[in-house]
Amino acid sequence: MDIRIANTKSRIINGLIELLSTEKLDQCSVREIVEKSGVSKKTFYNLYKNKQDFISQLENDILGEVEDALEQDRKSLEGIEKRSIEEIAGYASFAFDHILNYCDENSELISALLSSNGDITFSRQVVHIARNEFGVRVPMLVGEIDNNISESDYFKIFTTIYVDNIIDVLRYWLNHKDTLSLENVKELLGTVQVKSPAMAMLDLVKEN
């Protein structure tokens, strides 16, 4: 991509991020986005058909990068045979490297899109990708699962809890990067994979 186009797109994205700090996405207009970004409407429409085209391209790019990062991270789990609770928790030290680095580099944008002012459709797509990833990783972490188990209500509920916990940790971290390091969030991801909130809270109390 031409560096001038890349810089212009970056300015438009930064304008959107600033706008989402005070206004809901569905209420944002092209006029407001370009005013925040400091580019002209003509420049915007040279790049995008309309606001929806801009948001769709932006979110599709992010989701594609997320899927690529998860695929790269998944490779680190290939060939793993030992699967104790402690070991599964420890895998988080390397099994989320690429996705965490991508989220770290794009934290303001991802956080804005996942916020209450962001795009609920984007949030649902993130959850969908996370659920699919969970389905692929489960056999790698706990061994092959019988269809009767994977189709059970319990398994579906556990999947929902697991995915929601992982996303909630990432969402919290993106908004608190000044107090939570990458190593902190890896430890937290390891914990939520193997412990309930009550168990984790009890451990925290005992440690202090």
Detailed description of the structure:
The structure is a single chain. The chain is mainly alpha-helical. 75% of the residues lie in helices and 0% in strands. It has helices at residues 3-20, 30-37, 41-47, 51-74, 85-91, 97-105, 107-114, 120-142, 147-150, 153-175, 182-194, 197-207. Helix 4 runs antiparallel to helix 6 and helix 4 runs parallel beside helix 8 (120-142). It is elongated, with a radius of gyration of 20 Å. The model has no long low-confidence stretch (mean pLDDT 91).
Question: Top keywords for this entry?
Answer:
208 residues
Kindly state the percentage of residues in helix. over 70%
- Summed over residues and divided by their number, the pLDDT gives a mean of 91
Query: Which spans have pLDDT < 50 for at least 5 consecutive residues?
Result: none
Q: How many angstroms separate the termini?
A: 52 Å
In percent terms, what proportion of residues is strand? under 5%
**Helix/strand-derived class?**
mainly alpha
- Main sheet attributes: strand count, strand direction, barrel closure: none
Element order: H for helix, E for strand: HHHHHHHHHHHH
Supply Rg.
20 Å
Q: Report the principal-axis shape.
A: elongated
The count of β-strands is 0
DSSP helical segment count: 12
